[in-house]
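Re: the 618-residue chain
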Amino acid sequence: MSKKTVSGVMLTLLLTSVLAFAFTVQSHRAKLNTIEEHASVGTLPELGEFTGVLYAGTSNLAGVYRYTSDTGWEAMTSVPNSEDVRIETPHPYPDNYVNTWTITRPSAAVMRIHFTYIRIESRYDHIYVKSHDGIIINHYSEEYTDIWSGTVPGNTIHVQFTSDPSINYDGFVIDRLDWSTAQGLGIQEYAVLSLVDYRGHLYAGTMSASNPQEGVGRVHRYDGEGQHVWTMVGDKMGDRVSSLIVFNDRLYAGTSWGSGRLYRYEGESKWTKVVDYTEWSGIRSSYVWNNMLYLGDVADDKIGQYDGTTFQHIASLGGSCIYDFESYNGCLYAGAYQGRLLGSPDGESWSVVSEGLGPHMWELETFQDYLYMSLDSGELQRFDGTTRQTVWTAPDGIISMVACGDRLFIGTGGEAGAFQGSVSGISRIYQFDGVQVNAISDLLGRGGVQVLHLAYACIVVKLKETQGKLYLHVYDSQGRHVGVNYQTNETEMEIPHSQYSDDMNGTITVVLPMEVSNFNVTIDGKYATQAIETYNLTVTFLTSEFMNEANIQSSIPKGFIKEYEVLISNDGEIVVTPEFSGAIILPLFMVATLVAVIIYRKKRSIAPKKGLLHFSQG
């Protein structure tokens, strides 16, 4: 489940334009080479230059992975020890059978076991999974296949079985043991269902048991580099935390089952329950649209909205579960059980747009002027507002998607958070460019890629003019240059991970990584075609948390240059100072008034320090 936030038309439009640029980078002389061959598994192909980070949350066990160009795919959670074991009852087991099996690993801090199957008489025969001090972790009294126990603290697991005097079944088989020397998100949880950045940290919403209606929902915060630095900041939040989202600069968590409960984060490990709607079974999905938080029920096709103070139930359309929301062509859509696509022009009146598309419509994502829909059958379909078509079929269900520029990232596998969640699947990530699909990861976990989350942070310098040819040059504090070298007629991108684009129609754009906080900008009128040319220079600090922009409108005589020093603070404040070379002094009547106005600032949530995803090299 990818959780998305739309918070401001200006931010959305600029993100879209910058991301589109980032994946279609052009030098002064030639376009970036296109991808023509399938990428080898485990390698992310060159996708154009862009600074960001791609996160993936997985199941069985819960895992969080990220991609950077320097390290490739990197686990952010501890990887447990895993070994084959064989513990089983007689087949069938006798009457009045009582036995206890004990598994001990001296250095373990937490453990769990996997049942190949459980076939016992419902209500009369019982299996108990207990900790070393006798606390019951799981109680089974019916049939299951391919199921993991909850996590058991300590270095010992006790499995107790009892049968009554009659009716004998096949019993159970335990075939696998996972254990870790350290407690943490990886071994403690079964699946990561949601990821979001909030005030400089990455947060993960989880479920602790493979049965979606058992276990505990929690929220974990990533506090630094390495695999063991997750802090649990929310506990006992329903059976699972299905949704994390930032709304009005506050972090919210939607949980399941029992009631439609929405929690607001107050810091440290404190949460305030702001919605408890008993007519719902839980909150499965969330989305911000038109300054309103939309919520979807986990058990029925029910939709509600929350304005920061009051929750209102607004639609019941039958069916079972709202899996995802997405805006497209001015309307809000919802993907639901049985492949139903629901739509609303205003968020208030809802109707069934299309149905019978498949068993589950897990994800919706807007990409390249289409609304893309992912199905449990593995079909990737696109919708233009009238008709739909299948463009690709994955080897397993498509359960997560996120779009960035001209790439749609796709996660496959078994959906852990469904009414009867899947415990296994082909847990892999693909990219789609609108024509071709490439695998870009090895198998990540044993279950599925439950959520994809893309974060980004960059500095955009843009020169726009309409009268003639001005050139833009950027130099960092080490004198490294981004711009056209007049002697070689080639574009130089000496600043690592920088980008340069000239649309040959009056707009030049330079993208810098966010760590370049001090640089100089030069506007060169050497090749200007007019005696005096006006221009607009913008410097934008852009993340998926907020945007801060300085806008300068000025003019320059032919043959002259103008220079600006740019300083960007740690919190994204921009200071632009004009500088004039001693060799070129503009007459006073030619000096235009400098206007540097911060025109927009809207905070959302990203942690720029989490790592960098560089799409190509500068």
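The domain at 83-180 is CATH 2.60.120.290 (Jelly Rolls).
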